[in-house]
Design a protein that fits this description.
Blueprint (H helix, E strand, L loop, with lengths): L1 E4 L3 E7 L14 E7 L1 H11 L4 E7 L4 H9 L7 E3 L5 E7 L5 E6 L8 H8 L7 E4 L6 H10 L3 E4 L18 E5 H8 L4 H11 L4 E5 L5 E4 L4 E4 L12 H16 L1 H16 L11 H9 L1
Length: 293
């Protein structure tokens, strides 16, 4: 069972020729609103990949469409609270090469409390996995509380901030990082060196490292496996990492790390070929069909 205690956002996507620079005023060529937030995206990816997942967190009264989308995708939302104030949202600049720049407003995502965490975790324990990012409040408390219950804590430290290094990272069972986050945690830039340093610093934790166009790798202390990325036309990279995470962990225990990497890479590749975040995450049957080709 997966519990994703994570963010939910309304994503306002502006199509631009390039990301706006300091002091620059830039006209956008299009504007669209999508469901997003790393937490929501990862829950959708887990569910669409066939995982059993519940989503905990907070939305404002304007977040009904986010709850509905999760439920339509098979995600349990009983522990998703509606609170006063606005739902979190993001302003996303999407350039003509499919690359994005994102400005976040936490909103209801920062209304998560220790009391809500305790009440939610009471139903979980050994054998269950907790997925967390860095877009809600009280994450250090959440890490510690989940680890104390014997849960597998899977942490994606995005967006990265220097203060994260002082958090109780010994509670983490698996780190999910890209090259930038891996270098920030370890001071190393080479992928092999990042994995080596993560193994040295957190010997009881696994690391899932994504390398963009160079693929991905996974190290759990007993194996270090790799997978190439799937080459497709890039339209929007917004939910690629979240899609990868969801598909990997939905298949890790049943298929093993090597096969899970291959499936996750395919799903992420399919996601970048579609504009938007949540709507770009593919269904498992379509991922398998793509792989058969």
């Amino acid at each position: 069972m997966f519990l994703n205690f994570g963010s939910l956002n309304l994503d306002f996507v502006y199509s631009v020729t390039h990301s706006v620079r300091a002091g620059e005023t830039l006209a956008s060529t299009d504007r669209a609103c999508f469901a997003g937030g790393k937490g929501l995206n990862q829950s959708l990816a887990l569910a669409r990949a066939g995982g059993v997942v519940a989503h905990a967190g907070c939305v404002g009264e304007d977040g009904g469409m986010l709850r509905q989308l999760l439920e339509e995708s098979g995600v349990n939302t009983e522990t998703l609270l509606t609170v006063d104030g606005p739902t979190g949202h993001a302003i996303i600049q999407l350039d003509q090469n499919g690359q994005n720049s994102i400005l976040l407003f936490g909103g209801a995502n920062h209304r998560v409390t220790p009391a809500q965490i305790d009440k939610t975790l009471a139903a979980y324990g050994e054998g269950d996995s907790l997925i967390i990012q860095n877009e809600i409040s009280h994450i250090p408390y959440l890490m510690t509380a989940a680890a104390a219950r014997g849960m597998r804590v899977i942490w994606n430290p995005s967006p990265f901030a220097e203060e994260l290094k002082s958090w109780p990272l010994s509670a983490v069972s698996c780190f999910v990082v890209n090259e930038i986050e891996g270098e920030a945690l370890t001071g190393r830039s080479d992928p092999e060196a990042i994995l080596d340093e993560m193994r040295a610093r957190y010997p009881h934790a696994a690391t899932l490292l994504t390398l963009g166009s160079r693929g991905s790798c996974y190290d759990d202390g007993t194996q270090r496996v790799y997978a190439e990325c799937v080459e497709v036309p890039v339209v929007d990279t917004t939910a690629a990492g979240d899609t990868f995470l969801g598909y990997f962990f939905a298949h890790l225990d049943s298929h093993g790390a090597q096969k899970a990497l291959q499936i996750a890479s395919t799903a992420a590749g399919m996601a970048v070929s579609v504009k938007g975040a949540a709507n770009s995450i593919p269904l498992a049957k379509d991922v398998y069909a793509f792989m058969e080709k």
